[in-house]
Design goal:
The chain is mainly alpha-helical and 474 residues long. Helix 1 runs antiparallel to helix 2 (41-69), helix 2 (41-69) packs parallel to helix 4 (95-123) and helix 5 runs antiparallel to helix 11. It has helices at residues 5-37, 41-69, 71-91, 95-123, 128-158, 163-166, 168-182, 198-221, 226-248, 262-292, 297-325, 327-345, 354-381, 389-424, 429-457, 465-473.
């Protein structure tokens, strides 16, 4: 049965929107969760960290399972896990129950995200249609993070923290019902008898888990702690062993041939830096607005909303511009805009007006960060057909997630050390927080600046004359 690819995209993009939304919507509810479930200060981080740990750790495995056993099938399984775990999280009566539910949510996200991106890749042929589809994908993902703060504030203030989890359930059930009708199944045409490379799966998943766990623990313990160093060293060793095993495996978890794509090799670190810059900026700005400027959670979300709107507009524009001019100039422009937005934001203090200072910085950054992401994703998957779409999507998504976690941890650690130094020097709490805010944003700007260099190394994927003609019609 022939299915409308744009209806397929709607289901895939809204699933990704739900996953991204969940990351920020939960942050708003943390104070209420701590009070109601008697979390310790150190324990509260695991409401976020359990999700990040499982999401980052299982992405590569999720991408390859999707290739082998059916991308639509795994997409639905991931949705079911994510939605069911959301229900359990909302019903949690203890800290341990909530952390366990968040871990299963992360596993569900690790299964559905690479499956969704690979389904998008095989649904739309390379060219203008795929560029537009990835633009819509990037736009919904970008605004999902911003809307999460607004929705979280409304739900927590109105009907309780539980509803930041319950809201996923009806959305997930609707998408599960629609997926078989609107999305065609896709998998490798032929599969060897060996199935998944078990050794590679264990090494790759354990390596990513160790790396993400080490990054998560760096926040409370510091980068120099023995536990953090041991976890990071173990993660590096396991990943080295993983790549050694994958080179010899008959059916590798991640086929080494995909790294022959220059687009993938350059776009993956670009997306990792993008994730770190965005998550670091978002985290620091939310704290700045609430703790320095005294905004409520809802007002904070509303003030951040223009960044999401700018991201949506920029994502659509970037997809069309890539079709006309190729990926490289758009990625360079996005990186420069991101640097400019972060530098503008680093000039803001407690007395700066929202309209004259914060708003233009947020709009410029929102437009820039998505204008890096859209062409980078196009370049990353441009060389892949059905056979390796899931594996490539898993690598790209893992790069963004793990890079985001690493970047956020580095930015917050350097920001916190600046706050501590300022307090020791006699600064007020508000002034110290502003100093930490500024340092963190400058580190994020350095990430974006590196993306200018990576953009110069990105292959100049240009449209054909036929694709240009189609773009004009669109």
């Amino acid at each position: 049965m022939r299915r409308n690819p744009w209806l397929s995209l709607a289901v895939l993009a809204f699933a990704q929107f739900m996953v991204v939304l969940d990351v920020t919507i939960v942050n708003v509810a943390l104070p209420s969760i701590q009070t109601n479930l008697a979390f310790s200060t150190d324990g509260l981080q695991w409401v976020v960290s359990a999700y990040t740990l499982m999401f980052g750790g299982f992405l590569l495995l999720g991408g390859r399972i999707a290739d082998l056993f059916g991308r639509r099938r795994l997409f639905i399984v991931g949705l079911a896990l994510f939605s069911g775990a959301s229900l359990v999280a909302g019903l949690s009566g203890s800290a341990a129950m909530l952390i366990a539910a968040r871990a299963v949510q992360g596993l569900g996200g690790a299964l559905l995200s690479p499956a969704a991106l690979s389904l998008l890749t095989v649904t739309f042929p390379q060219g203008s249609e795929r560029n537009v589809a990835l633009g819509i994908w990037g736009a919904l993902a970008g605004i999902g993070g911003t809307l999460g703060v607004v929705a979280g504030g409304l739900l927590v203030d109105g009907i309780g923290w539980e509803w930041v989890f319950f809201v996923n359930v009806p959305i997930g059930l609707a998408l599960i019902a629609l997926a078989p009708r609107l999305i065609a199944e896709s998998r490798l045409e032929e599969r060897g008898r060996g199935g998944i490379d078990f050794t590679g799966a264990v090494l790759g998943t354990a390596g990513l888990l160790a790396l993400v766990f080490g990054v998560v623990r760096a926040g409370p313990l510091g980068w120099g702690s023995a536990e953090v160093i041991a976890c990071l060293a173990l993660g590096v060793a396991l990943m080295a062993a993983f790549f050694a095993v994958e080179r010899r495996a008959a059916e590798p978890l991640v086929p080494m041939r995909i790294f022959g794509s220059r687009g993938l090799r350059v776009a993956t670190p670009a997306l990792a830096l993008n994730g770190g810059a965005f998550l670091g900026m978002f985290f620091l700005t939310a704290i700045f607005l609430q703790q320095v400027r005294g905004a409520s959670a809802l007002v904070t979300g509303l003030q951040l909303l223009p960044m999401g709107v700018a991201a949506v507009i920029a994502a659509v524009a970037a997809s069309n511009l890539v079709t006309r001019f190729g990926v490289r100039p758009i990625q360079i422009a996005g990186a420069l805009l991101s640097v400019a937005g972060l530098l503008l934001l680093a000039q803001v203090d407690a007395g700066t007006s929202y309209v004259g200072g914060l708003l233009p910085a947020l709009v410029v950054f929102g437009a820039g960060i998505v204008s890096i992401g859209v062409p980078a994703q196009i370049a990353a998957v441009a060389d892949f057909t059905t056979a390796d779409a899931g594996a490539a999507s898993g690598v790209v998504t893992a790069g963004y997630q793990v890079g985001g976690a690493l970047g956020l941890a580095l930015i917050t650690t350097l920001s916190d050390s600046r706050v501590t130094d300022a307090l020791a020097g006699g600064a007020s709490q508000a002034d110290a927080l502003v100093a930490g805010f500024h340092r963190g944003l400058l580190v994020a700007a350095a990430f974006a600046a590196v993306n200018v260099v990576l953009a110069l190394l990105t292959p100049q994927i240009s449209p054909t004359q036929e694709q240009l003609a189609e773009a004009v019609v669109v």
